[in-house]
Description:
alpha/beta; c-terminal autoproteolytic domain of nucleoporin nup98; 2 domains; 7-stranded antiparallel sheet; 7-stranded mixed sheet; 18 helices; 36% helix; globular; binds S-adenosyl-L-homocysteine
Amino acid sequence: MFLTISTTGSAQSPATDLGFLLHKHPDRAQSFSTAQGTAHVFYPEATEQRCTAALLLEVDPVALARKARGKGRGGSPDVALASYVNDRPYAASSLLAVALGSVFSTALKGVCHTRPQRAAEPLPLRVGIPALPAKGGTAVVHALFEPLGWSVTAEPVALDERFPEWGDSRYVALTLEGRQRLADALRHLYVLLPVLDDAKHYWISSDEVDKLLRAGDGWLAGHPEHKLITSRYLARRWSLTRQAMERLELARLAAADDSAAEEIDNAVDENADTEERPVPLAVRRREAITAALRAAGASRVLDLGCGQGQLVGELLGDPAYTEIVGVDVSTRALTVAARRLRLDRLPERQSSRVRLLQGALTYTDSRLKGYDAAVLSEVVEHLDPPRLPALEHAVFGAARPGTVIVTTPNAEYNVRWQSLPAGQVRHPDHRFEWTREEFRGWAGRTAERYGYRVEFTAVGDDDPEVGPPTQLAVFHRSETTAKGAAA
Ligand code: SAH
């Protein structure tokens, strides 16, 4: 059983930092004895530019069979033979996941005292597993890894290359590529390898639920296949699966804010009439926002109405942002945001870059002055229209960042959400939703009053008739001070 993890780097951030993050030195080959065999960790390549760590697990099928028998599993002679002569030594499986969990246990927790920043930031990663048993085939492999941000190459492995007519085996050769924090990548593998294998080779007890929820923290509750993952991981033991699903549901509820506009959008998104599972609108919105921030060259950024802090978290992952301030009126949202971002557990270098402030955007606030950019993502529609001028004054007049990015639903698009009754807004807390013309009108007037230039972008698929689901405006402060600007 074999798995490789590779990353790339440069002189400033060498790829060999992977050794620090994994707590295994690139110059040494090391062996560890695990419950099912011997695990070896070594580095086939380790340069500034490229570094690959390999985990090889040598399984002893005889010992394994003895162990299983010791647990009271007997059976017919055929079954007994199959437990000695099987694919265990070769195919990556739940055993490899167990080895991964024990050999890289500190890395799995995201702990790295020597390179805390590298542990906290997404790295360009490539994971290779040449033989992975995949129940359900390549479609399931895609459905499990893609929603987590991996780009997936899964090629079925022929049963026997000499006899193509025999067809494919139940194995795939898997390559995952993406920018991920190393700990997240390891936790994805730790959970999803046994899920794909769908045959646990050790006893399932209720502490497996804890292990699953711990390894799935932050990604499992929101995964579109969380049900499949949970039930397979827990070997279809329904009482445990139900227990896990209930706890995931609680985690989801805790993460849901009073104004969970984002979740509504996503729920509606899933019903959209597209063949492939669409990228959630909230994700596309954050992509558009970060692209606009990058284009503006911003490094000190306000996220006004930051909600649960998803955007703040994303910005935190990019060292280009030196100061990130999330502001929201809801203490509950800020509490959830602080927990999601693990502010209390971040190393000082990271935590000093981020602050969460409680505040109402309809009042001027001297703490918000002097930033490069401010984001108002899905916020303006939560204000009663008569309060909007107060927000305009506080943001464009008083805080006066160089760039302001505003996103809001496009009301015209609502006819495309099949599950949304005609004439309704997307979320009960939306006080209004603008058509493209209304938004452009408001943005143009606001820009003019406060001395900004404004341009517009579509977020999501731009429908030829009704436009995109989300509309985005980028305001750039003109150099001259305008009449409405506060001194
Ligand atoms: N920006 C996040 C959250 C949008 S939901 C996203 O794009 O997903 C709207 C958020 O705005 C909520 O968290 C709500 O508490 C906050 N909000 C609404 N009115 C506000 C006000 N007057 N001052 C500050 N925050 C406000």
